[in-house]
């Protein structure tokens, strides 16, 4: 009885304090994805849907990592794709030139990108706000021109291709391969989502939010702001490079377009759509945007690709104006309202009075 | 040895000397008041002592160790905490988490007794300033008086030896002023030394045993609150010269 009470109290603490949806909700959203390949028939269209979801999963990891850095720590970077690209290049180069197996190249890519992020972050995080956004925007462009310059090693514009054996499951046929990749990426989303969520709700995560809210005040609390910013930057880079490395092994090529500006901006669209600052928001937003982009707007209604950016910008503008807190918070807020109403019904009117009084005491504006 | 020793501290902004050759000291267990009309350099003095601004010359010693020129977070971890004149809460975080951030600092986390969790310690600190009922409310929904006390709880989270309060009574109504005075007394009894910047002499008189007066960056008087209230120079500074 006491334990139940404590668990409930803790869960409400997690929702209120950390502003993230509860575990149950996440599980409910995750379940349909888990059984999808078993339910659908084996066909070309299923295969296409699965590949859309595979890239959705990779974007989900990427968006969640961006969300930890921007939505939780307030370090506005618009060039996060550099870590994605770096991860895919390191893993491909290690595979092609050193001949390492996949399970060794991906961790190597994560490790090297994290170290590189520390080198990049140390000077870049000295500047704040729009200046950081500008500087970080330039980073992938610099990396791309370096890739073009060192053509012999990186393959230049065409990218660095791997043979078919660079895939995750080289022996499988096309249908099994997609299913295997689907489950692999889904597992990665679950694991990295849980890790990022745990970091976000930890006391370190609270320090991140304090830097987002007021850097000067967190300095006055004795927090070494630079250290925590670097920490957020490195964690974020690690997960971004993980998704980039897996991406390279699925496409069997590391191309400079992996770190293009489109990727850096789409992650903003995904996270705003899903809800900035909730790690789940990036994940939900990534799946939805990928689904709309590659399935709804191609298979269900055939809209020319050139029009897709307009549609997404429209969605984002509507969301910023109408639901600036994003889809996930829209759902959790609705659930919370429901719970409150039920509590009022169960425990009498006096709670309602107390609740009203509390609402009244909030300052205007 | 004094707890804090400030010697010949000078801070210039271009041609303007905001703090001019100020020297004073604070002993352990004291409550010292710092007064002065608007623009006297009180807040600048605070910023210089806590490392938010760099001084031009002079020394600031905490227990004999020079702390001038250290970055703000290192000074906090040496044992000087401060509050701000305009409240700066972490508005996305709930009240209790505001204090938990301070408990995450090296000094704050080191001083937690082994038997306590940080959450429990934070709750105790909120209780000290009378905010334990509000612990789950987001900081942005708290009224101004509560935010002022939240700032003090947050500063206490770093377990300071010296607490610098920048106008803690500004914008509070009489009831809130009384509440805050009461909590400051409790905090003082717990063994915290304080330096309080304040305009409201009435509130300051109840707390401080010694008052410094700044005018145009210079120290013009120091002594008992009663003596200061009668001091001709101080009256002149506040009210203007009698023609």
Provide an overview of this structure.
The complex is a heterodimer of chains A (365) and B (243). Chain A has 365 residues and is mainly alpha-helical. Chain A has a domain of 215 residues. Chain A is built from 16 helices and 2 strands. A two-stranded antiparallel ribbon of chain A has the order 1-2. The two termini of chain A are 41 Å apart. Chain B is an alpha/beta fold and 243 residues long. In chain B, helix 7 links the parallel strand 7 and strand 8. In chain B, helix 3 packs across helix 5, helix 3 packs parallel to helix 6 and helix 5 packs across helix 6. The termini of chain B are far apart. The chains are: A mainly alpha (365), B alpha/beta (243).
Describe the protein's topology.
The complex is a heterodimer of chains A (365) and B (243).
Chain A lengths: L1 H17 L4 H17 L4 H29 L8 H18 L3 H23 L4 H21 L1 H4 L5 E2 L12 H28 L1 H11 L1 H6 L4 H27 L1 E2 L6 H14 L4 H22 L7 H15 L3 H22 L1 H12 L5
Helix pairs in contact in A: 3-8, 3-9, 3-11, 3-12, 3-13, 4-5, 4-11, 5-11, 8-9, 9-11, 12-13, 12-15, 13-15, 15-16
Chain B lengths: L3 E10 L2 E11 L4 E5 L6 H8 L7 E6 L2 E2 L5 H7 L1 E3 L12 H9 L2 H5 L7 H11 L15 H14 L4 E5 L7 H16 L3 E5 L3 H7 L2 E6 L2 E6 L1 H6 L1 H8 L4
Parallel strand pairs in B: 3-8, 3-9, 6-7, 7-8
Antiparallel strand pairs in B: 1-2, 1-4, 4-5, 9-10
Helix pairs in contact in B: 3-5, 3-6, 5-6
